Amino acid sequence: MGVRKLGEDLYLYPGSPSTLIKLHEGKAVLVDVGHGSGRHKDLLREVRKLGSEVKALLATHGHADHISVAAKIDTPIFMHRFEFSIAESPLNRELLTFGSKAPEGFLVFQFPHEVKVHAVFEWNDELFGLKAVKLNGHSPGMTGFMDEESTVIYAGDSFFGERIIQAVGVPYLVDVELFKASIMQLHNYAIEGFLLVPSHGKIVKGEEAEKLLEFNLQRVEEAEKKILELLEQPMSISELSYHLAKAFGANVTPQTLALNQVPIRAFIAELYNRGMIEAVIEKDLKWKVK
Ligand SMILES: [Zn+2]
Known about the structure:
Elements: E1 4-7, E2 10-13, E3 19-24, E4 27-31, H1 39-49, E5 54-58, H2 64-67, E6 77-80, H3 84-88, H4 90-97, E7 119-121, E8 126-127, E9 130-134, E10 143-147, E11 152-156, H5 162-168, H6 176-191, E12 195-198, H7 206-230, H8 237-247, H9 254-273, E13 277-281, E14 285-289
Parallel strand pairs: 4-5, 5-6, 6-7, 11-12
Antiparallel strand pairs: 1-2, 2-3, 3-4, 8-9, 9-10, 10-11, 13-14
């Protein structure tokens, strides 16, 4: 498996996440190095084949599957300042994806080590020929990287391929409105002709990109609608997670049900703040429509 050329000095190494390789002033910058025992060797080999060497690492966000190989590549890693402590602390990572320390083997991907962040950046900063673009909602500081010359955006987990959404039911997000706003932003970029590269899923452009983004947005809106329907009866977060997974025909496993409780809590916050639902105690903390 080799790299795919995306533009002038711009390549993609496949994986889940896939890794973007940007050659800047002759040296390589890697975005989302990913995970896996031999991945660092594969990446270093591909960079050597391009006649270059790695000078810096960037990450779209601090989820374990995006950064765990960084610890094996002796190169400074740069993160958005909202993601810095998520990368640095394995406990913060579990906190973000589970809500507290997680039972072993319970998260989709666990990486129990620290990743030392070299420096933090802001959205709109220029980093090694790439522009940091605000695409948060999936995580607090989720960042896309734009190569304006090649009209490519590496979009991280700000949107997902159809297959992943079908499998989990609800796209993973921690803030519904921010996630939606990022999808709209990506939609504008798609109309401007940008090639969109998700971390997990296939590269899309033009009409195909617009359709996939609409599918992501629709799924968020359907989830909101289904939650309101389900909450005609008082229900706990955990019950909602089960019924929503069933309604979307998603995989019903302990891991999926636990993970989906995070976006569901974000939906609950949104609906509660809009005055559409209330909290009731019925042998548990439950929520119901007003
Ligand atoms: Zn993620």
